[in-house]
């Protein structure tokens, strides 16, 4: 035990001593880092004299990533930064210990170079597996090194990518995906980011130890029950066998030969795209700024402008509704103007509700709906406007299973709201049942006595409709 503690101390101490700050540069800047997803590209096997090449290579990679759907639609959600990590020598190691077939037919010169993260081909004896270190034992040390470079230089990164200055085909996934500058390396990088950032599985059979429930892998083969059931029949999505484990368990995938998680030259399948967009929304709100923002208004004058700055997908699929004192006021605009006759004496409430209506999400199928709101409380006295206070919120609303027969689970997560209400409404507009939900708690609603058919689940915060989800009762 003592020895372990000593070792731990030594490692921590070593980390502090070796803390190094490198030059960094932003190569894709769409706005504030704290409102964006931050992709950080680290150089490996580039000497400091080759940093201009590293920048050019990183820009090429970035352009390819953000011309690939759904990154292309959501490019505004991302900033990209590069960290110039110098290596003593160029390239990557190639010990030549891959299989004879590959070493003979796809030769890479044998090299042993001194590079910062020690990238090497033939990792785990696989010719094309370009990894930091030759095997798991050595890799642990290098992982500490990668972590400390990120912590010392860009601790708020969302995803890192290590770009290796080698013209030969190769790459690897894991926490820190790695790709070479071989032209196919760009597609390798995107596939590996699919694993690392979005937890997507391979849609070619990845081997028994890499199977499991994921966005794009399931042991469920029934097309009415599988998690991508609402995509079945659209864009060639179905339930395809993706191999059988030695334990005899079968695994299924949504696409067959038509997803980047199986074939590098393909796009991501609809199911993977949906999962990726869910992750974007999970991590950031499309609401960047709003005004007025917590302003106490003195000697105010009408008209008053209320404005949003939104991080928009391209094409813009964000929708907004504006509600003044419970009544619809405007929709799908980034700002409204309020004049004196619009307001009552006393407290007025203006709320805007923003959500992404992209067709890349199957709205009735995906579990979590993300909603941004801003509420302005406008205090108008007989003497005139007194104060305008504002509050923004970001909601995640979950409802599952759907379709359901006996009960549904309802949950919401919010930054600023403790309670919301859900009303279950029949197709003829009758309110069947109403339930109050509290932040972060899952509530179960008994729907066993409802007749089969389609209902709406309307979610309200302080009488403002946040979301309307279709509920199918079986
Ligand atoms: Zn896929």
Automatic annotation (TrEMBL):
Keyword tags: Signal
Domain called Secretion system C-terminal sorting: residue spans: 399-471
Signal peptide: 1-19
Pfam family, one: Por_Secre_tail
InterPro entries in the record: MetalloPept_cat_dom_sf, Peptidase_M64_IgA, Secre_tail
Keyword match Signal: yes
Keyword Signal attributed: yes
Coiled coil: none
The protein's name in its UniProt record: M64 family metallopeptidase
Organism the protein comes from: Algibacter miyuki
Lineage, uppermost ranks: Bacteria, Pseudomonadati, Bacteroidota, Flavobacteriia, Flavobacteriales
């Amino acid at each position: 035990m003592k020895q372990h503690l000593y070792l731990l101390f030594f490692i921590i101490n070593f980390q502090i001593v070796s803390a190094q700050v490198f030059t960094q540069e932003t190569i894709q800047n769409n706005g504030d880092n704290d409102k964006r997803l931050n992709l950080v590209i680290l150089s490996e096997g580039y000497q400091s004299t080759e940093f201009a090449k590293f920048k050019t290579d990183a820009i090429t990679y970035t352009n390819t990533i953000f011309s690939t759907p759904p990154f292309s639609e959501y490019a505004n959600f991302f900033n990209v930064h590069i960290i110039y990590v110098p290596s003593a020598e160029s390239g990557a190691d190639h010990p030549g210990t891959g299989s004879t077939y590959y070493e003979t037919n796809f030769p890479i010169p044998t090299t042993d170079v001194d590079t910062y993260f020690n990238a090497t081909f033939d990792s785990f004896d696989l010719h094309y597996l370009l990894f930091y270190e030759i095997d798991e034992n050595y890799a642990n040390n290098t992982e500490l090194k990668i972590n400390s470079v990120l912590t010392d230089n860009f601790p708020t990164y969302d995803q890192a990518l290590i770009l290796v200055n080698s013209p030969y085909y190769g790459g690897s996934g894991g926490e820190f995906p790695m790709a070479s500058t071989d032209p196919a390396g760009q597609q390798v990088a995107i596939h590996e980011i699919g694993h690392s950032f979005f937890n997507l599985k391979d849609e070619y059979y990845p081997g028994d130890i890499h199977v499991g429930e994921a966005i794009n892998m399931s042991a469920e083969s029934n097309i009415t029950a599988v998690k991508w059931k609402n995509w079945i029949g659209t864009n060639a999505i179905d339930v395809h066998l993706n191999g059988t484990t030695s334990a005899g368990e079968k695994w299924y995938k949504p696409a067959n030969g038509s997803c980047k998680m199986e074939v590098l030259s393909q796009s991501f399948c609809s199911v993977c795209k949906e999962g990726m967009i869910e992750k974007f929304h999970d991590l950031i709100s499309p609401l960047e700024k709003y005004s007025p923002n917590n302003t106490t208004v003195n000697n105010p004058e009408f008209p008053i402008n209320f404005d949003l700055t939104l991080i928009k997908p391209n094409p813009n699929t964000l929708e907004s509704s504006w509600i003044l004192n419970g009544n619809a006021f405007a929709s799908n605009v980034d700002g409204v103007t309020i004049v004196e006759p619009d307001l009552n004496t006393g407290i007025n409430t203006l709320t805007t509700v923003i959500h992404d209506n992209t067709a890349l999400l199957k709205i009735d199928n995906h579990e979590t709906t993300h909603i941004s709101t801003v509420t302005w409380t406008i205090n108008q006295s007989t003497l005139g406007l007194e104060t305008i206070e504002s509050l923004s919120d970001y909601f995640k609303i979950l409802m599952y299973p759907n379709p359901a027969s006996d009960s549904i689970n309802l949950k919401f997560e919010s930054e600023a709201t403790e309670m919301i209400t859900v009303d279950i409404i029949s197709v003829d507009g009758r309110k069947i049942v109403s339930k109050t939900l509290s932040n972060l708690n899952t509530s179960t609603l008994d729907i066993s006595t409802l007749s089969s058919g389609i209902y709406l689940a309307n979610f309200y915060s302080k009488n403002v409709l946040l979301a309307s989800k279709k509920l199918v009762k079986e």
